Structures are given as C-alpha cells and as structure tokens.
Amino acid sequence: MASERELNDFLASIDRRAYLRATYSTRDEDAAMDLVQEAMISLASKYADRPRNELPLLFQRILTNAILDWHRKHKVRAALFTNLSEFQSSDGGEDFDLLETLDLEQVGGELEAADTQLQRRQTLEQLEKEIARLPERQREAFLLRYWEELDVAETAQVMGCSEGSVKTHCSRAVHSLARVLKSQGYA
C-alpha cells in the first residue's frame, strides 16, 4: 500500500508530462488541466490502497480513459451543434507552447551558450508541432513509451491494445517525426 507521501510524490512527478499528453490529445489547455486533475483525484480516491509500483500504470489508464471520454463528449457536442458552430469564429486555441512548461536549466544542468539554447528552443518548438500532428494512437504510444518511459507491455495495457500494435504505432511515429524533421533541416 502506497503511503500518502508516496502518492503525493508520485503525482508531483508526473503532473507536467500528464498535462502535455492531455494537451496534445485534446488541443485544449483548459480541458487538459481538468482531465489531469480528475485523473489524479480518481487515482487518489479509488486506488490509494494500491502498492506504489502499480500507481504509474493505473494513472496512465485512468488518464487515457478520461481523454477518450472527453473525445466522445466533444464528438457528440460537435454533432449536436454543427449548425451553430458555423457562426462562431474558427479560433481553435492551439497556441500551447511546450517551452513555457520546460525549464531549460533543469534539462541542461549547466549554463549553455546562447546559440545552443536558441537551437534547442527551435528544435523543441518544431518537435512539439510535429508531435501534435501525429495521428492520435501514434501520438499516444509515442508519449507513453518515450516521455512516460513505460515499456511495451505497460503501454499496451494502458492503451488497451496488443504489444505489436504499440510497436507499430511507435515505429510509425518515430519514422514520421524523423522524416519531417530531417526534411526541415534537423539532424
């Protein structure tokens, strides 16, 4: 059973990554924040009695389900109010900036030259744009495997698919990102 301190430490360690994942998936910062908070509350209230080592997979599954529910609700609302939405502005609110959430001093651990920092910022901006353009399942697999550092079996469990599907989605995501970034001059 995880102690209250272990649960708090776990939630503090995953909040930024979970927020980024939800933001990429929903493309709505407010909805992403709500989804992450709801997932954390659900984990704390329903699964606090679980061992510490089970918390990461449980949380990822809760967040995945919350994101899927959000998409379902969003799809229903869009279908119901299609005619009304034609009169609204097309401002999608997709101005999420990865660099605002990334503390470059923590990443680097040492002071870097200005040109190195600029190059890193430009690369991260481009990477963020390309991750957001990935198909949903590829993006989810990529973020779980490489940002959340889950193994293939854990990712498959969270996504509710086979390990082979996870490998396929990750491979396609990596190749797609590499191809696009290389075409834009990034090594």
Question: What is the count of DSSP helices, taking H or I runs of 4+ residues?
Answer: 10
Output the structural class: mainly alpha
Largest sheet: none
N-to-C CA distance: 45 Å
Topology, number of strands: 0
Shape: globular
What pattern of helices and strands is seen along the backbone? HHHHHHHHHH
As a percent range, the share of helical residues equals over 70%
How much is the average pLDDT? Answer: 79
Radius of gyration: 18 Å
* Share of residues in strands: under 5%
Structure in words:
With 187 residues, the chain is an all-alpha fold. 75% of the residues lie in helices and 0% in strands. It is built from 10 helices and no strands. The protein is globular and about 50 Å long. The N and C termini lie far apart (45 Å). Residues 80-91 and 96-111 have low confidence and may be disordered.
